[in-house]
Amino acid sequence: MKQSAQATKGGGPVLVLGLGCERGAGASEVIALAEQALRSASLDPAALVTVASLDTRADEPAIQAVARHFRVPFRTFDPTTLEAETWRLANPSEIVFRHTGCHGVAEASALAAAGRDGRLVVPKVKSARATAAIAESFQPVGVASLQGESVASSVASSMGRAV
């Protein structure tokens, strides 16, 4: 069954891909996981408007490669901002908290980028070295820097996007 998230000219819901990965994870692995997450819920990759992750992954080549693959901006959030999403997570993890200071990276970053009214449409899925989750947003998902958030401008500028 096709999910309701579609990128429409009329401002309909859009998708945010949240990613987490180990340092040095392969780009092909993380791209394949992202594509699998979209396929698992029959979501249209054209509805994807941003990739989001933890700020310590801003320079992670595999996550940057995913943003380039889908030709969308890459946003990052600090652990405090992601921890504020814990109540909305489908899979909070104490292990992740011990390593990052937040109870989830993929789900929390997708939800943080999707905004207050966003909802998970694909809870965390895993590969050997990465996690992905997808949230649906019903509000504009900007790339402007906000408190607790940064924009990976190197990725956005390499794609010719203003940040």
TrEMBL record:
Every CobE/GbiG C-terminal domain range: 15-135
One Pfam entry name: CbiG_C
Protein's UniProt name: Cobalamin biosynthesis protein
